[in-house]
Design a protein that fits this description.
By secondary structure, this protein is of the alpha+beta class. About 20% of the residues lie in helices and about 25% in strands. The chain has three helices and five strands; from the N terminus they run H-E-H-E-H-E-E-E. The chain has helices at about 15-30, 45-55, 65-70; strands at about 35-40, 55-60, 90-95, 105-115, 120-130. Strands 1-2-5-4-3 form a five-stranded mixed beta sheet, with helices on one face.
Length: about 140
């Protein structure tokens, strides 16, 4: 695992290749499987492509947009009946291609309804496993 201490005002994905790519190579030379999980700051086509070229499994949160919201519209309606005290969570997996991507990728959307909250929580993760579309999910 690699880490780099930087000033607090630096964007989290700035200079990603300087730390990430050498660490991936080092771990793979040691015979370890590399899995990368990141927030939406790392949702960049050049990062996806570098990870895919390196054979790295990944799960990266992607920012919501109108197209993604349309793809999960059926999940956004609050469940009928008395609200559960436990969160009601729904998932949907689908292929999605953003305008800046060269290829479609598997996206897993998570929609959660929490007791006492008026609105739902939505998260999207772009995922690829073993270089194949539709592989397993890391959440």
């Amino acid at each position: 695992m690699g880490a780099k201490l930087r000033p607090g005002n630096v964007h989290s994905a700035e200079d990603w290749e300087e730390l990430l790519l050498p660490e991936i190579e080092r771990q793979q030379r040691l015979g370890k499987e590399v899995v990368f999980r990141a927030d939406a700051a790392f949702a960049k086509p050049e990062i996806y492509e570098a990870l895919e070229e390196s054979g790295v499994k990944y799960a990266i949160r992607i920012p919501a947009n109108d197209s993604l919201e349309r793809d999960i519209a059926e999940l956004l309606t609050r469940p009928v009946g008395r609200p559960s005290h436990k969160p009601v969570v729904w998932y949907k997996s689908f292929l999605y291609r953003a305008a800046t991507w060269k290829t479609a990728r598997r996206v897993v959307a998570k929609v959660a309804f929490h007791y006492g909250e008026l609105s739902h929580r939505v998260g999207h993760r772009d995922q690829l496993r073993d270089g194949q579309l539709g592989g397993g999910a890391v959440l």
